[in-house]
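for the recovery benchmark. tokens below, seq after
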């Protein structure tokens, strides 16, 4: 056996050993984190609203008025269900929600031991940390597979349902990059550009019953609790879209994130300062695959249900923008951008995100996909006043660290993180 052949065999053996170890760890964690016993808690109605006290009203004009008038008062809405979809800037929005919740002393319905509600299992109230029937929660916002009846039994009847969507082709590219190594059927895809090869002939590789396969087909539709492998002309597709339309008061779009926040501000009677954000969990540009027109078309065809869902809510989104007023929207977006830019100059060292290797504080390191450190983060400026230091740290804090600070026990998530760090990829 030549030296080259020996190295190839060692590489193959190493891959098999690491793959076996990874699979074993994943199965172990899945068994530890999946509820073994499902039970139905007794039906105890929650109050109409869980607000601890009436929030102070402030001026806001009406979205439904053809002649918006300043000076009308409204009360901020604090009972919120945010359906956190995957790879849709939802971690950035979660940071906004966390800060709003702390400001108003709201009660979050958090998962226990991990940062999601036993996803991809369907959501159950029993998955909520310290849940007891009749408890009052204001906000639920961690990853789940949506189960409307169970969510409705947990939250007040006046709850505002919010979610966010992303162009399915771009979402697929991001999901393939982030979750691909966790989907075993991708391991047999030849070549370095696995995504392109997969899209060339997806039915050759895709296993609908395979472990984690849902990450790579109609992931949005799956997150909302529906079958992601339905044929596009199956009547359940339209049924699902109709159900989401009726349940969610606002469906935001990643591509128009700032406009989405302005619509949210108006729908929930929030203030502009409640919307301030820095983009979290962003990938560095060198790891983003640029979709050619052909690949984009293939990705849309493969995720046809998500594309139909996205097109529907893209249309309703712009209807809301028109009702709000295009000029008014442009002015409010400009104000939000100005405020965010001002906060960036106060908070962020260098004014921009940096590679994971350049992040100085361990506590500011974002969660990374297996095999690489492609998610960027921030360094916070030093020597700022105490008030800004507290706000800046909150705005820059990655999701896992913020959840821990809010009192969530993430032992399973952290154990998985340690395993990922130990394995030399």
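predicted aa per position
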């Amino acid at each position: 056996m030549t030296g080259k052949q020996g190295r190839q065999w060692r590489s193959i053996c190493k891959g098999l050993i690491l793959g076996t170890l990874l699979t074993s760890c994943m199965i172990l964690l899945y068994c530890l984190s999946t509820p073994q016993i499902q039970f139905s808690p007794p039906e105890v109605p929650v109050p109409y609203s869980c607000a601890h006290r009436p929030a102070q009203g402030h001026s806001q004009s009406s979205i439904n008025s053809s002649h918006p008038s300043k000076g009308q008062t409204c009360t901020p809405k604090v009972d919120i269900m945010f359906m956190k979809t995957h790879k849709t800037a939802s971690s950035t929005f979660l940071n906004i929600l966390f800060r709003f919740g702390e400001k108003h002393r709201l009660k979050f319905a958090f998962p226990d031991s991990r940062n999601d509600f036993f996803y991809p299992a369907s959501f159950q109230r029993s998955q909520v940390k310290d849940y007891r029937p009749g408890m009052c929660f204001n906000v639920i916002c961690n990853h789940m597979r949506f189960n409307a009846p169970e969510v409705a039994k947990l939250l007040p009847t006046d709850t505002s349902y919010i979610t966010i969507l992303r162009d399915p082709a771009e979402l697929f590219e991001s999901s393939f990059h982030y979750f691909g190594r966790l989907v075993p059927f991708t391991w047999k895809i030849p070549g370095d550009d696995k995504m392109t090869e997969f899209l060339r002939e997806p039915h050759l590789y895709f296993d609908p019953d395979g472990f984690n396969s849902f990450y790579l087909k109609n992931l949005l539709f799956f997150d909302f609790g529906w079958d992601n492998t339905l044929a596009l002309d199956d009547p359940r597709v339209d049924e699902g879209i109709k159900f989401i339309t009726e349940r969610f008061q606002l469906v935001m779009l990643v591509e128009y994130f700032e406009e989405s926040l302005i619509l949210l501000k108006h729908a929930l009677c929030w203030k502009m300062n409640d919307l301030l954000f820095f983009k979290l969990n962003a990938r560095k540009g060198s790891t983003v695959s640029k979709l050619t027109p052909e690949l984009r078309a293939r990705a849309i065809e493969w995720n046809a249900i998500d594309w139909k869902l996205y097109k529907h809510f893209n249309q309703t989104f712009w209807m809301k923008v028109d009702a709000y007023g295009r000029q008014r929207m442009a002015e409010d977006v400009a104000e939000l951008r100005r405020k965010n830019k001002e906060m960036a100059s106060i908070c962020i060292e260098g004014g921009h995100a940096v590679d994971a290797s350049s992040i100085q504080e361990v506590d500011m390191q974002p969660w990374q996909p297996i095999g690489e450190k492609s998610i960027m983060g921030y360094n916070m400026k030093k020597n700022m006043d105490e008030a800004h230091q507290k706000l800046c740290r909150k705005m820059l804090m990655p999701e896992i660290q913020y959840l821990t600070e809010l009192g969530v026990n993430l032992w399973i998530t952290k154990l998985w993180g340690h395993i990922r760090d130990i394995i030399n990829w």
